[in-house]
Model the fold of this input.
Amino acid sequence: MPYPRAPYYVLAVMAVIVAGFWPSYWSILGTSRWQFHLHGAVSTTWVLMVFFQTWTAHHGQLPLHRATGKASLFLFPLLIGGLTGIIDVTAKNYLLGEAAQNPVTMMFGPSFLIGLAVALAAYVTLYFLALRNRRKVWPHAGYLLGTPIILFESPFSRLMSNLGVPGFAVRGPEDFPKIMDGILYSDAVALLFCLAVYWRVGPRARPFLVTAGFVGLQMVTMGLMKDAGWLKSALLALGTVPSGAVVATGVVIGAATSWAGWQAGKRPVAQMPGAAQPA
Done:
């Protein structure tokens, strides 16, 4: 099976998620909005699902592997719904302005929106390709393993701040600009990881180049578009849309991806010998 160390890599991502979000989410569960609970629960479940997929594949548990893969068809719409939930919270805070008491959103709201949009596009693309190539071991594994990388930058940047890493520690409003520095650095780490996997494995690791493309796009757009007027207008417009509608749109996008990917990966129907050919 490809990527024999994949289970350990996925567990490392899981550890970063728990440690990075411990102060701002895991330790204060009772104070978070429902959108954060949806995103946190489903994203964590998704990473655990990827770990279970890699573990079953490498231990010959193919029936469990296939069953978990089919379950992911129903989990993925919730993953995208959770991501659009975070977009919704960002937009609502930006619409409220200073009254939301969230100066970070006011400073970086447009960057967060474009970063989340790129992440959504990455999830949809990688999962669709994983489903379409589910009968081809190397691309299927690579595209699925790309999905936790999209989750990496947010918790890793927070972890660096939590640990007081010089240049990334945020101790007060004067350090807020370091938040974006941490995000861009975390994306750079993820990008280098993808390129290192491709360099070591070769063309069979093409899915990691695709993942690297999305990570690079996220870096560039988040770093350069924090003052884009059209993104500010989009945030204000999204802030007026009911939260349920925003999340439901994400669920529909995820469900459409699951259906399209599953259909694209079906075996072609074999034609019976001697069957009439279309004119």
